[in-house]
TrEMBL record:
Keywords: ATP-binding, Carbohydrate metabolism, Kinase, Nucleotide-binding, Transferase. This is fructokinase. It holds the Pfam family PfkB. It is an enzyme of class 2 (transferase). Pathway: Glycan biosynthesis; starch biosynthesis. Transmembrane segments: none annotated. PROSITE patterns: PFKB_KINASES_1, PFKB_KINASES_2. GO terms for molecular function: ATP binding; fructokinase activity. GO terms for biological process: fructose metabolic process. Belongs to the carbohydrate kinase PfkB family. InterPro entries: Carboh/pur_kinase_PfkB_CS, PfkB_Carbo_kinase, PfkB_dom, Ribokinase-like. Its EC number is 2.7.1.4. The lineage of its organism: Eukaryota, Viridiplantae, Streptophyta, Embryophyta, Tracheophyta. Signal peptide: none annotated.
C-alpha cells in the first residue's frame, strides 16, 4: 500500500516514516521521544531484482530470501592494531549479520528482503535508505521511537580480526514484537535466513521464533548462522543453550570452526566426528567456514572441503555474511544444488570468493562484492 503525502497519526514505533517527513536545514526534523507518535502504517514494498529460472535478472515483488534480525551501525577504526581508546578515528559502516546477508545477496543480483527494527533516529533513517539504495526490500523494517538504533564499536587487530563493544541497552532491534511481523513476506520467500542474536531478549525472542515457525510451516528453506557474540549473552551457558534451541529447525547451517569448539564444549572443530554430532535429522547442509582456508561441507550424501582465496585482510567483519550471501544467492536459483556435489562445490567456491573479497575493505556492507568482482577473482584463481 503506497503512503499518502499526509498520513494519519499513528502508534509509537510501528511504521516507516513517509517521504513527506519534514526536514530542517536539509535534515529530518525528529519528534521528541515524549511526543505523540504516528499511527501504524506500513510502507509500500520496494521492488527488488530477482534471478529467473534461466539465471537472467528479473523483477519480483516476493523476495526469494528474507533475512531476519539486527541492523546496526558498526564503527570501525581507521587504523588496525590499536585499542578502541587509542583509535584516532572511526569509519561509520552499516552492519548487522542478517542485514549484511540481505545486502550481499542483492549486490550479487539476487532478490532479498530484511525484517527488523531500528530507532526513529538519524542512524535508523540512514540504514533504511541504505537498504533501498542496495535494492533490498525493506517493507519489513520498522522504527521505534523509544529506543535508539544499535551501535557496535569494532577493534581491529593487526591481522584484521576484531573484537566488539556493543551499545544496546536496549536498542530498537531488541524491541521487535510478534504482532509487528510481516508474515506474508516470510511465507512467500524461498529461503528464510536468521541468526541467534535476536534470541537473547524479549520481546524479539518471541518474534524471532514466530517468524521462523511461519517460514517452516510454509515450506520455506531455513538458513541459520549462529553468529556467536558472547558479550551480548548473560553467560556462555545461556549462549550455548540459546543457539542450540533452534538448531534442529534449520535446513542449512553455517558455523565457524570457533563456534563448533564453543558449542561442543571445547572439542576439536577439525575432527569430522565432532562436526557430525551437530548434524540433526533434518539437516540438508552443514557448512564450516575456515577463513582463508575455505570451507567444509557435510550432508547426508557427501562431505568434503573447498579451498579459499588468500588475501590481505584489512577487516574480517562481514566475511562470513558475504559467504552466506554467496551460497544463498546460488541456492535461491536452484535448490537441486544441494543434491549435486559437483555443482555444490562450484557454488561454495563462489561463496568463498565472496567472503575473501569482503575482508579487503573496512566495514561489512560497504565491502560486499559485485558479480563482476567475484568473476574477476575466480578468473585470477583459475589463471
Amino acid at each position: 500500500m503506497a503512503l499518502r503525502a499526509a498520513s494519519p497519526p499513528c502508534a509509537a514505533g510501528r511504521c516507516l516514516p513517509s517521504s513527506a517527513t519534514p526536514r530542517v536545514g536539509g535534515r529530518r526534523a525528529f519528534r521528541s521521544l515524549a511526543s505523540a507518535a504516528p499511527a501504524p502504517q506500513r510502507a509500500s514494498a520496494v521492488r527488488t531484482k530477482a534471478i529467473n529460472s534461466d539465471g537472467a535478472p528479473g523483477t519480483s515483488d516476493s523476495p526469494q530470501v528474507v533475512c531476519f534480525g539486527e541492523l546496526l551501525i558498526d564503527f570501525v577504526p581507521t587504523v588496525s592494531g590499536v585499542s578502541l581508546a587509542d583509535a584516532p578515528a572511526f569509519k561509520k559502516a552499516p552492519g548487522g549479520a542478517p542485514a549484511n546477508v540481505a545486502v550481499g545477496i542483492a549486490r550479487l543480483g539476487g532478490s532479498s528482503a530484511f525484517i527488523g527494527k531500528v530507532g526513529d533516529d538519524e542512524f535508523g533513517y540512514m540504514l533504511s535508505d541504505m537498504l533501498k539504495e542496495n535494492n533490498v526490500n525493506n517493507q519489513g523494517l520498522l522504527f521505534d521511537t523509544h529506543a535508539r538504533t544499535a551501535l557496535a564499536f569494532v577493534t581491529l587487530r593487526s591481522d584484521g580480526e576484531r573484537e566488539f563493544m556493543f551499545y544496546r541497552n536496549p536498542s530498537a532491534d531488541m524491541l521487535l514484537e510478534e504482532k509487528e511481523l510481516d508474515l506474508d513476506l516470510i511465507r512467500k520467500a524461498k529461503i528464510f535466513h536468521h541468526g541467534s542474536i535476536s534470541l537473547i531478549t524479549e520481546p524479539c525472542k518471541t518474534a524471532h521464533i514466530a517468524a521462523s515457525k511461519a517460514a517452516k510451516d510454509a515450506g520455506v528453506l531455513i538458513s541459520y548462522d549462529p553468529n556467536l557474540r558472547l558479550p551480548l549473552w548473560s553467560s556462555a551457558d545461556d549462549a550455548r543453550d540459546g543457539i542450540l534451541s533452534i538448531w534442529d529447525t534449520a535446513d542449512l547451517i553455517k558455523v565457524s570452526a570457533e563456534e563448533i569448539s564453543f558449542l561442543t564444549n571445547g572439542e576439536d572443530p577439525y575432527d569430522d566426528s565432532v562436526v557430525e554430532k551437530l548434524i540433526h535429522p533434518n539437516t540438508k547442509l552443514l557448512l564450516v567456514t575456515e577463513g582463508p582456508n575455505g570451507c567444509r561441507y557435510y550432508s547426508k550424501e557427501f562431505s568434503g572441503k573447498v579451498g579459499g582465496l588468500k588475501v590481505t585482510a584489512v577487516d574480517t567483519t562481514g566475511a562470513g555474511d558475504a559467504f552466506v550471501a554467496g551460497i544463498l544467492s546460488k541456492l535461491a536459483v536452484d535448490f537441486s544444488i544441494l543434491q549435486d556435489e559437483a555443482r555444490l562445490r562450484e557454488a561454495l567456491k563462489f561463496a568463498n570468493i565472496c567472503g575473501a573479497l569482503t575482508v579487503t575493505e573496512r566495514g561489512a556492507i560497504p565491502a560486499m562484492p559485485t558479480p563482476q568482482q567475484v568473476a574477476d577473482a575466480l578468473a585470477n584463481v583459475a589463471a
